[in-house]
Design brief:
Strand content of chain A: under 5%
Low-confidence stretches of chain A: none
Mean pLDDT of chain B: 82
Shape of chain B: extended
Largest sheet of chain B: none
Radius of gyration of chain A: 17 Å
Helix content of chain A: over 70%
Number of strands of chain A: 0
Largest sheet of chain A: none
Oligomer: heterodimer
Mean pLDDT of chain A: 90
Strand content of chain B: under 5%
Number of helices of chain A: 3
Distance between the termini of chain A: 53 Å
Structural class of chain B: mainly alpha
């Protein structure tokens, strides 16, 4: 097994996440794309931790922190989506122009 | 992980195909419920990849937290904001999609070239293997103690913040109004009056305490 395979897979997942983040119009799908990008970063960290730092696995520690913060981000993000939905009665990203002049 | 090289290659291929296909489904499918379930597929295949990378603990945490918590939370959010109406069409939306696809494929090719051309310095010593969880625990309580405690505080803040954001807002005059409001009454039919029939209401009300006593 090669480190490069994992890194290329993580790069592909990250690019799919960016594509979804920019093009999707449903706010919940934007949050799902952010989760995809976070998972790609986690995969990178785990691959580095296994192949480059096998004894002193700090990458797994970082991945655990990223998972914890991703859970917090998902909770707060979905709460914000709910609040906006109650305010604007839509989840279309094109109509979220409260801060646009 | 004590697997033969061929088994590792084959399982990596299967898991990566699952992950890429499910991720494309998350982004491209029109129905968002399918996207949410495919996102669970992405999480599970990434947990399998963690197992290939000798990380049992993080794979378990991935399944528990992502599949068990984040994915269920996303499904709940989809259920709560479920509105069956098509979005208003935007002029020249295809330009955005095409340019984003070009930028993303360019970024991917850049990253792939970087990964392939970098001389990685692989570690030569024995891997942590099954003692990984002990090593992670030592890291948590020695050199990563402050981030560990900060993560707990952050989780508490996120919990309270999510509750505050997601609850229904009280209007200011609603908050003041209960001072002048009369006592709350349950909207139910006066059953004694109907049962007694011809007796005047005053007599019924006067008789009520004696009814309760007997």
């Amino acid at each position: 097994m090669q480190l490069q395979y994992f890194l290329i897979l993580a790069a592909a997942l990250f690019c799919i996440g960016i594509f979804g983040l920019i093009t999707s119009r449903n706010a919940v799908r934007v949050l799902m794309s952010i989760e995809l990008m976070l998972n790609a970063v986690n995969l990178n960290l785990m691959a580095f931790s296994n192949y480059l730092d096998a004894q002193d696995i700090k990458g797994q520690v970082f991945t655990t922190f990223v998972i914890a913060i991703a859970a917090a981000e998902a909770a707060v993000g979905l709460a914000i989506v709910l609040a906006i939905y109650r305010n604007r009665d839509t989840v279309d990203m094109e109509q979220f122009n409260l801060l646009k002049w | 992980m004590n697997l033969a090289e061929g088994v590792q290659i084959v399982s990596f291929g299967l898991l990566s195909l699952m992950a890429i296909g499910a991720a494309l489904g998350v982004v491209l499918l029109a129905n968002i419920v399918y996207s949410a379930f495919l996102l669970g597929g992405v999480f599970i295949s990434i947990a399998g990849l963690y197992l290939l990378l000798n990380a049992d603990f993080v794979a378990t945490a991935q399944v528990l937290i992502y599949v068990g918590a984040v994915n269920v939370l996303i499904l709940f959010a989809i259920m709560l904001v479920n509105k069956r109406q098509a979005f208003v069409t935007v002029q020249r939306a295809w330009i955005r999609r095409v340019s984003t696809a070009v930028v993303c494929s360019g970024l991917f090719s850049l990253l792939a070239v970087m990964v392939a051309s970098t001389p990685w310095s692989f570690s030569t010593g024995a891997a942590a293997g099954n003692g990984a969880i002990v090593t992670i625990g030592k890291h948590f309580f020695t050199d990563f103690l402050l981030p560990f405690e900060l993560a707990s505080v952050l989780l508490l803040m996120a919990l309270i913040g999510a509750v505050v954001l997601a609850r229904r807002e009280l209007l200011p005059d609603d908050a003041i109004a209960p001072l002048q409001q009369p006592a709350l009454t349950l909207p139910e039919r006066p059953r004694e009056l109907l049962a007694v029939g011809t007796t005047p209401p005053e007599a019924t009300i006067a008789r009520l305490p004696s009814d309760q006593n007997s």
